[in-house]
TrEMBL record:
Any Pfam family: adh_short
Domain of life, per lineage: Bacteria
Keyword tags: Membrane, Oxidoreductase, Transmembrane, Transmembrane helix
InterPro entries with a match to the protein in the record: NAD(P)-bd_dom_sf (IPR036291), Sc_DH/Rdtase_CS (IPR020904), SDR_fam (IPR002347)
GO cellular component: membrane
The keyword Chloroplast appears for this protein: no
GO molecular function, one term: oxidoreductase activity
CDD domains per UniProt: SDR_c
Transmembrane residue ranges: 142-162
Family of this protein: Belongs to the short-chain dehydrogenases/reductases (SDR) family.
Protein name as catalogued: SDR family oxidoreductase
Length: 277
């Protein structure tokens, strides 16, 4: 067993842990000796990941919690279960999130209510529950996965972008509230990435999905490093950093036009162009 790793004796809870960023976060925490609580809806993938990491890095404990965070009671159920089995969460990673592509007047209301429940309400509830315990100990870390679109309006992803704006604002506010404690809150803002996000959001034919994509392991490393340093916000990727800087200079109408272009389907635009000739 490796000794003196920074996570030795500590536990990290990661939501959305069955793929994408969540899977990469699990690998990083395990490498540094953190015990893991993996939360997602897909039990088999989490078990394969968690137990392989437990063997590879000689972790004391890996907890697998199958949970659908679009259900209102899920955060409380997760918290209660960990209390019941005596697991203390030292690091909370609110990674789970989903989007939906399309014009707002045409998209499915039930799906968008689930997006708000997952991207906002579950993040708020999990943070509230575990932060209270961290505050009592005066120690802990929280990483909330926002998005580059938290910095700008995103037509055709209007609800998703709005939820990520909440995550960023929420994280920055909590970071200030906790500035005189040993607890840090970090917001990670990735751009378009090579995960299942676009497929789940029904946006796989958009320009953004078919342009340059960040790799999830690179994004996770950026977020993990910022979390360990106690940074308030990290934008992952050089081009995304440029885009974030530009968002402070351009009017929102220009940003919205740029984002709409990225979120349009190329084939659809070409059809519209030819039909207008």
């Amino acid at each position: 067993m490796k000794k003196n790793r920074i996570g030795q004796g500590k536990t990290a809870l990661i939501t959305g842990a069955s793929n994408g960023f969540g899977m990469e976060f699990a690998k990083l925490f395990a490498k540094d000796g953190f015990n893991l609580v993996l939360v997602a809806r897909t039990e088999d993938r989490m078990k394969d990941l968690g137990y392989s990491l437990q063997d590879e890095y000689s972790l004391e404990k890996v907890c697998i919690i199958t949970s659908d965070l679009t259900e209102p009671d899920a955060p409380q159920d997760i918290y209660d279960e960990l209390k019941r089995i005596g697991v203390q969460v030292d690091v909370l990673v609110n990674n789970a999130g989903v989007g939906l592509h399309g014009f707002f007047h045409e998209t499915d209301l039930d799906k968008e209510e689930e997006i708000i429940q997952l991207n906002i309400t579950a993040v708020m509830k999990l943070t509230k529950l575990f932060l209270r315990d961290m505050k009592a100990r005066n120690e802990g870390k929280i990483l909330n996965v926002a998005s580059i679109v938290s910095l700008m309006p995103a037509p055709l992803m209007a609800v998703y972008a709005a939820t990520k704006a909440f995550v960023l604002s929420f994280s920055e506010a909590l970071s200030n509230e906790l500035k005189d404690t040993n607890i840090t809150v970090t917001a990670l803002c990735p751009g378009a990435s090579n995960t299942y996000f676009f497929k789940r959001a029904q946006a796989e034919n958009t320009r953004a999905a078919n342009g340059p994509l960040s790799e999830p392991d690179v994004v996770a490393k950026d977020g993990y490093a910022a979390l360990m340093k106690g940074e308030v916000k990290i934008v992952s990727g050089l081009m995304n950093k440029v885009q974030a800087a530009t968002s402070n200079l351009l009017p929102d109408t220009a940003l919205a036009s740029t984002m709409r272009y990225q979120m349009e389907e190329e084939a659809e635009k070409e059809t519209q162009y030819h039909s207008s000739l």
